[in-house]
Design a protein that fits this description.
Layout: H1 18-28, H2 32-53, H3 57-73, H4 84-109, H5 120-138, H6 142-153, H7 158-165, H8 169-193
């Protein structure tokens, strides 16, 4: 059976002296109260610093908040409270650089979509259809053409078309129905000739 070695003994605890207590206070570093005061006094200036490096407000706010979180986490290492602001500024700059690097990398990695363009053949076919529709519209009665143009191309309601043309809503419905039927016949005849 294998033998397991015992864990090494922990260091003996040191009994703090009066002098040790003074050193411990100095080693505590930046206090939470000092960070709170720094936040109140310098948040806007740090936001302005981030704004010089980044382009949108949300990213600037995120960077500044993250800088305060990091300084709070490392507050025991910032022994001199006077250096807290410098540490925050450097953290804001570094985090802004990182954010820009991530954006640039993201843009490089994005696949560029193909342009949403019709081929030359599709474009020509659409042009032929459009020309055919215009010719068929010219063959309609004037009132049918007016109703269809206002209703479907100008996207007006039946009531708006009736008011514009000075006719009843029932007449708009009748002219529209007859106009669509006439267009359908004209377009089918044109398609059959091809």
């Amino acid at each position: 059976m294998p033998v397991i070695a015992p864990m090494p003994a922990a260091r003996p605890a040191r009994i703090p002296t009066q002098r040790d207590g003074a050193e411990e206070t100095a080693a505590v570093g930046t206090t939470v109260d000092h960070l709170t005061e720094t936040y109140r006094a310098h948040y806007r200036s740090l936001l302005g610093l981030a704004a010089l490096l980044l382009d949108d407000t949300a990213s600037c706010e995120d960077v500044v908040q993250e800088a305060f979180i990091r300084v709070h986490s490392a507050r025991r290492r910032v022994r001199d409270p006077e250096k807290t602001l410098a540490y925050l500024r450097q953290t804001v700059v570094n985090l802004s650089r990182s954010a820009l690097r991530r954006r640039i990398l993201g843009l490089k990695l994005l696949s560029k979509p193909m342009p949403d363009m019709a081929s030359a053949e599709e474009g020509a076919y659409e042009q032929l259809e459009r020309d055919g529709l215009i010719q068929a519209m010219k063959g309609l009665q004037r009132r049918q053409r007016e109703v269809l143009v206002l209703r479907y191309f100008a996207d007006m309601t039946e009531a708006q078309v009736a008011k514009t043309l000075g006719i009843s809503v029932g007449s708009v419905k009748a002219y529209g129905s007859r106009g669509i039927a006439a267009l359908r016949i004209a377009m089918d005849a044109k398609e059959a000739r091809r």
